[in-house]
């Protein structure tokens, strides 16, 4: 496959927005591992710029990347072995090392847990039980990695049995042209507003059926889209229309939240249906607009692209733990929300970058954070563009 730089930038941007979204989770009244002392209901409004589509987009771009990885691997078996190494090792490392501080902060700040962190690790975290309603050990934000691995297993089996060409032959006639925008949007609205009214995913793989009905098709759509020029052309042609619909949906949600903050909606079918349709129609129209922008405007390289593309997964692995630890340290200081937010953004990005650089330079750490084996070291005189090329895992 020819490399699509626009989809690289879309993947980088999607994970970057996810980090910003998780910082926002500190300030909204919704549940999270750590909360500011004074949650702000109005923060819900900007959060809905990405809330409806952020996770579905991640599975679309992951499916797209899986097509390139399958082509590079050469067979379904080699693809599955590569995916297992790159996903399961970081997942296990994350559950054992990265995630425990999140659970400890949540217990100490929200449940009155009194033990120190080392005692928590030694006596409670690995007992495989619930502690005050929290399952331990846990994967928290790394649920995405677990789901992605399972979907990759299913994809490898499907390709081995049916064949990628046959699957592609079914995809192009169905989703060619305007149907690439309308059919997925109609499916999501039907699924989420008519068939089911699940507010949030459970992140319990066995009990998360509605999420699978959303994410598996998104993953497979991205996989097939990677070899479908007519679908990519449709997104590029209609990105302005898709974006306008998505913004109209967001404006509708914002108006509802201004009228009834923190979802204190009246017992009115009209209000509830308006909210549900706007939220779930925004999902695919926003994704369609972003793919169209990636195809039409962003499909060009830059000297930082390969480095940022490589850093995305290590950033994802560690970012939420950094957010939770930093906010846990800020709580006793009683700083204002603006200062709190600024500190969280700066320290999260800085610590994620340090984590990534350490992973690049320490050979044994690389597979633990989802990077390929040892990288060639660049000559310092080559500058940042040379380093980016030498450190790229692609």
UniProtKB/TrEMBL annotation:
Coiled-coil region(s): none
Membrane-spanning ranges: 12-32, 52-75, 87-105, 142-165, 177-196, 216-236, 243-261, 281-299, 311-335, 341-364
Keyword Mitochondrion attached: no
Signal peptide (from-to): none
Positions of the Acyltransferase domain: 5-356
Family matches, as InterPro entries: Acyl_transf_3_dom, Glucan_succinyl_AcylTrfase
Top-rank lineage group of the source organism: Bacteria
A GO term for molecular function: acyltransferase activity, transferring groups other than amino-acyl groups
Keyword terms, alphabetized: Acyltransferase, Membrane, Transferase, Transmembrane, Transmembrane helix
PANTHER family named among the record's database cross-references: BLR4337 PROTEIN, GLUCANS BIOSYNTHESIS PROTEIN C
This protein's name: Surface polysaccharide O-acyltransferase-like enzyme
Species: Sphingomonas aerophila
């Amino acid at each position: 496959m020819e490399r699509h730089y626009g989809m690289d930038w879309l993947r980088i941007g999607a994970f970057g927005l996810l980090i910003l979204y998780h910082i926002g989770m500190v300030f909204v009244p919704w549940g999270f591992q750590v909360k500011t002392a004074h949650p702000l209901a109005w923060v819900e409004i900007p959060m809905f710029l990405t809330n409806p589509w952020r996770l579905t987009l991640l599975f679309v771009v992951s499916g797209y990347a899986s097509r390139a990885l399958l082509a590079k691997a050469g067979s379904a078996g080699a693809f599955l072995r590569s995916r297992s190494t790159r996903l399961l090792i970081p997942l296990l490392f994350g559950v054992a090392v990265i995630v425990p501080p999140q659970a400890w902060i949540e217990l100490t700040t929200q449940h009155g847990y009194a033990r120190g962190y080392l005692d928590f690790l030694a006596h409670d975290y690995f007992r495989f039980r619930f502690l005050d309603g929290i399952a331990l050990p846990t994967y928290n934000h790394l649920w995405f990695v677990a789901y992605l691995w399972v979907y990759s297993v299913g994809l490898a089996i499907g390709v081995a049995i049916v064949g990628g060409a046959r699957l592609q032959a079914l995809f192009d006639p169905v989703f060619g042209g305007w149907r690439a925008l309308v059919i997925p949007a109609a499916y999501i609205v039907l699924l989420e507003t008519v068939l089911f009214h699940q507010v949030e995913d459970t992140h319990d793989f066995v009990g998360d059926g509605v999420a699978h009905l959303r994410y598996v098709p998104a993953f497979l759509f991205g996989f097939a889209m990677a070899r479908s020029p007519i679908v990519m052309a449709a997104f590029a042609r209609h990105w302005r229309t898709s974006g306008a619909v998505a913004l109209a949906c967001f404006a509708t949600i914002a108006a509802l939240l201004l009228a009834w903050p923190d979802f204190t909606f009246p017992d009115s079918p009209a209000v509830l249906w308006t909210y549900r349709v706007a939220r779930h129609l925004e999902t695919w129209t926003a994704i369609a607009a972003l793919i169209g922008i990636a195809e039409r405007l962003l499909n060009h390289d830059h000297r930082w692209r390969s480095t940022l593309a490589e850093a995305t997964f290590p950033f994802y692995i560690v970012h939420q733990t950094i957010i939770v630890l930093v906010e846990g340290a800020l709580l006793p200081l009683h700083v204002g929300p603006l200062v709190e937010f600024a500190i969280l953004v700066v320290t999260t990005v800085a610590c994620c970058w340090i984590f990534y650089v350490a992973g690049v330079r320490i050979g044994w750490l690389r597979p633990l954070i989802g990077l390929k084996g040892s990288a060639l070291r660049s000559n310092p005189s080559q500058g940042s563009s040379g380093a980016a090329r030498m450190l790229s895992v692609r």
